[in-house]
Design brief:
This protein has helices spanning about 1-20, 25-40, 45-55, 55-80, 80-90, 100-105, 115-125, 135-145, 155-165, 170-195, 210-215, 220-230, 235-250, 255-265, 265-285, 290-295, 300-320, 320-335, 345-360, 365-375, 375-405. Helix 4 runs parallel beside helix 7 (about 115-125), helix 4 (about 55-80) packs parallel to helix 13 and helix 5 packs across helix 7. It is globular and about 60 Å long. It has one domain. It contains 21 helices and no strands. By secondary structure, the chain is mainly α.
């Protein structure tokens, strides 16, 4: 109970300071200090782990990825590519509201840290038709970016879950695909309920030219996908190649090129990214995450509570997709099973962890997208709570029905 009280204090402090509209990077740093104090990490160990987190290859690559994603988004927006894409989609789709969902969902097929930032400028452009608030634009971009993570086999968290439970990843994807359908349905319901239908701007027929324009308008993103999935290059290298080629093919003068590059860089977001990685490192090194996973007895009713609490809290505290699987699932294997696991227990634990990710104020996609649109997180949470609850309750319902049929 003491461990849970400490975790509750860390979560409360995080949410309270965010509500006071403190800078999120500062909030994460203060909460990192609090976690170190509560879990008795000495000054020497704290300083060492902060340094290791800041200089880790993972952190430096992540900052590089975020910077290049921001650059590509800025380049495509400045050059009018996103406007071209939105105009083409207006001819291709019957209901213009779907333009708020399709690009983000498409980009979501690319497993990328902070990948929601790629879709943000597209949603910004498409949202002008309805004059949407920052919170709603944040939600549409954020939600549809993450509909695939329950069942798309290229996501690392699914690969890890398959490896830990020693089950073919195709089987996990098959069992969890219904949650992708639920996520799509919940998102579309919220979209259609809030955003009024407006007739298409024109009745021009659909043409191959429109399809070509959609793909050409986001060619750097498509190139990144090809380099990663076909040529098996790393994320950072693929983004780097795409970014360099935008400068090679762009017909811009030197002054404009400098503006495009400078406009895509945000020192504040780079610091925020580093703060998230330090926060994650201290939670791991202090033993806080292991304590969370072991805080609930693994027997009887409490075993089901642990299936929810361990992945959810790890996901919520870290905001890192792989963390809730890598940290919580090894402790849940005795309950879930190995080689022939109970797929309903596995799916419930996975969805519980991913719900924690979706709600985490440390999740880079959420905080960076909210920052891009200048949205208040509390306003985004008001919108996000319903579809998140629908996905979680669908997993809980599937688990309950499976127990009744056993």
């Amino acid at each position: 109970m003491i461990v849970l009280a400490k975790i509750a204090l860390i979560v409360f402090a995080l949410l309270f300071l965010i509500r006071l509209k403190w800078e999120l990077g500062l909030v994460l740093f203060l909460d990192t200090l609090l976690a170190a104090v509560l879990f008795r990490m000495g000054p020497g160990a704290f300083s060492r782990n902060v340094f290791q987190a800041l200089t880790a290859t993972e952190t430096l690559e992540l900052i590089g990825i975020v910077i290049l994603v921001l650059y590509l988004g800025n380049f495509l927006q400045r050059e009018g590519h996103f406007r071209t894409m939105v105009d083409a989609l207006k001819n291709l789709v019957h209901d213009p509201r779907l333009i708020l969902a399709i690009p983000s969902a498409f980009i979501g097929l690319l497993p990328m840290v902070a990948g929601a930032m790629m879709g943000a400028p597209i949603v910004e452009e498409a949202g002008r038709k309805w004059d949407l608030t920052p919170a709603w634009k944040t939600f549409f971009n954020y939600w549809f970016r993450h509909i695939w993570e329950y069942s798309w086999p290229l996501y690392i968290n699914l690969i890890l879950a398959a490896a830990i439970c020693r089950v073919p990843i195709k089987r996990i994807c098959l069992y969890q695909f219904p949650f992708t359908i639920v996520a799509v349905g919940a998102g579309i319901f919220v979209l259609f309920r809030h955003v009024p239908f407006l007739p298409k701007d024109s009745d021009e027929p659909r043409t191959l030219k429109d399809i070509f324009q959609v793909f050409f308008s986001i060619w750097p993103i498509l190139l990144t996908i090809v380099l990663i999935f076909i040529f098996k290059l790393g994320m950072l290298l693929s983004l780097g190649i795409a970014s360099v080629l935008t400068q090679v093919f762009a017909r811009l003068d030197l002054r404009t090129r400098i503006k495009v590059i400078a406009g895509g860089f945000s020192f504040r977001i780079a610091l925020l990214t580093a703060a998230v990685m330090v926060f994650k490192r201290i939670l791991e090194a202090s033993g806080a995450l292991d304590s969370v996973a072991r805080a609930v007895p693994a027997h009887g009713f409490f075993s089901y509570a642990l299936l929810f609490a361990a992945p959810f809290l790890v996901g919520f505290l870290t905001g890192v997709n792989q963390a809730f699987v890598a940290i919580a699932f090894p402790l849940l294997v005795p309950m879930i099973g190995m080689e022939k696991p109970d797929m309903f227990l596995l799916a419930f634990a996975y969805v519980s962890g991913f719900v924690g990710i979706l709600l985490s104020p440390a999740h880079l996609c959420l905080v960076l997208t909210a920052d891009y649109f200048k949205a208040e997180l509390k306003d985004v949470y008001r919108i996000l709570s319903l579809p998140v609850a629908v996905v979680f309750l669908s997993a809980l319902g599937a688990l309950i029905i499976s127990r009744l049929l056993m």
